[in-house]
Amino acid sequence: MTAPSGVARLLLVCHASTVATARAAFPLDEPLDERGLRRARGLADEFVPGPAACPPELRCLQTAAALGLRAETDPLLADCDHGRWAGRTLAEVEAAEPEALASWLGDPAAAPHGGEPVTALLARVAGWLAVRTPGRTVAVTHPAVIRAAVVHALGAPARAFWRVDVAPLARVSLTGRGVRWRLTYSP
């Protein structure tokens, strides 16, 4: 099925797994783990070789390459800045800063880690979606960016961000005209 003229078709692909994924840690700019690299390479036949919008982080660039895609860097697709929590596990942060973690999980405008609040991430991703041009775009990006795109596409409140799970190599399709989007999810 082809999209009508003037419609943007986006395929958002989550990067493959990393050591931080397995540890339930706030990510650093780490490479893919062996399992993630193997799984991404195993999916390469499902993708048409060509360009893919990617943030500058290594895990996304490696995923795009493993899928047979040519990465074109777009900083708007960068992961959420987790500030001083980067590299720490959720359990470590909860043990050291339980009030700060509760604040961050309960208030999308909070940034107790000194990084980017969820509301800023949502605005950044909404801005990226608003300038999509007609045609097909593949983007290999982060779970947080895909969550933000889903929240925006559904017109859901910012608090819904935490209710969306995005697994490594998950795919979400959005079809729309920059403002209104239709969502399709593929595991």
From TrEMBL:
Q: Which domain of life is it from?
A: Bacteria
Q: Could you tell me which species this protein originates from?
A: Streptosporangium longisporum
Could you tell me which InterPro entries the record lists for this protein? His_Pase_superF_clade-1, His_PPase_superfam
Cross-referenced Gene3D superfamilies, in alphabetical order?
A: Phosphoglycerate mutase-like
Query: What protein name applies here?
Result: Histidine phosphatase family protein
